[in-house]
Known about the structure:
Blueprint: E1 6-8, E2 14-15, H1 17-27, E3 33-42, E4 49-55, H2 60-72, E5 79-83, E6 86-87, E7 102-107, E8 113-125, E9 133-138, E10 154-156, E11 161-163, H3 165-168, E12 176-178, H4 201-208
Antiparallel strand pairs: 1-2, 1-9, 3-4, 3-8, 4-9, 5-6, 5-7, 7-8, 10-11, 10-12
Amino acid sequence: MAASNGNCFVCGETTGKIAMKNHIIKKHGNGDEECCLIKAEGAYDKNYWLLFSVPLDAPMSSVDKFLRRIWCECCGHLSAFRYGGREFGKTRKVSALEIGSTLYYEYDFGSTTEILLTVVDKISRPKQREKVQLLARNVPLADICDNCGKPAAYVDAWERELLCAECAAKVDEDALLPVVNSPRCGECAYDGEQDIWTFDVSRLKQLQD
Ligand SMILES: [Zn+2]
Ligand SMILES: [Zn+2]
Ligand SMILES: [Zn+2]
């Protein structure tokens, strides 16, 4: 399967992951606040990806909070960053991360979701109230039902199967979780409830007009 495209949440452009990184640096790297541009990918499925900025003086807890909301939070599980083989505390500043290096984020030490973070570059961004700014995100993956090939709407978390609404009606509903745009899709009780970052090109247009 070809790597998934993504949407720019600043201007609405749609392009691949590498082109998007260059696009962000070129077109949206101007502002009065020094930030790190960070790429997040599902460690086991890199079709899930994000590009976001976070001010250099922000603590890692702001990245933890953001990743929980967009991709992870189900029952308030523990989480941790691992950098250079050891835990990287959440009070540490983003500025302690070296440009070009990678680190891992783990959410929930039972049914773990592992996320690979790459410190892409330094950019400057307009100052905003929310420390972490989502700049780009993969378009939702076109998952299909394992039974019949129609678009999948649910995951049967017990059987580890993707199901369309019709096929899902035939299985125990306790097993069902919604298909969501996250590497945590189908894990524990994750339903994407706190994910407010849906790409909406008409809203972007309104903001620009
Ligand atoms: Zn853009
Ligand atoms: Zn949970
Ligand atoms: Zn089906």
